[in-house]
Design goal:
Elements (H helix, E strand, L loop, with lengths): L2 H12 L5 H14 L3 H15 L1 H7 L3 H20 L2 H9 L1
Length: about 90
């Protein structure tokens, strides 16, 4: 999100008129605010990591480490999600 994006969003919220090009920029700026599926998975993983008393103690004072771990878990979830369903179940059963 750039300062220009923020200005565009502020302008949109104020009710000012836009040219079609400005409207397209505004839509792109708003879209950039939307969390990705990776972000959603990372949030869920981070909640789980920090809710676990043992993990919470391990991350105390080092939140960045917890966030990095959460995104690594999210990446693993996305990689697993991309596999064909038959392949996913074959690995779980073995």
């Amino acid at each position: 999100m750039t300062p220009t994006d923020l200005k565009i969003i502020e302008r949109a919220l104020s009710g000012q008129a836009f040219t079609s090009e400005e409207a397209e920029q505004a839509m792109e700026a708003v879209e950039a605010l939307r969390p990705t599926l990776r972000d959603t998975f990372a949030v869920a993983a981070l909640q789980g990591l920090l809710a676990n008393p043992g993990a919470n103690a391990a991350y105390h004072g080092n939140v960045r480490h917890a966030v990095v771990d959460a995104y690594q878990l999210a990446d693993a979830m996305l990689a697993e999600r991309a596999k064909p369903i038959d392949h996913q179940f074959a690995e779980v059963e073995s």
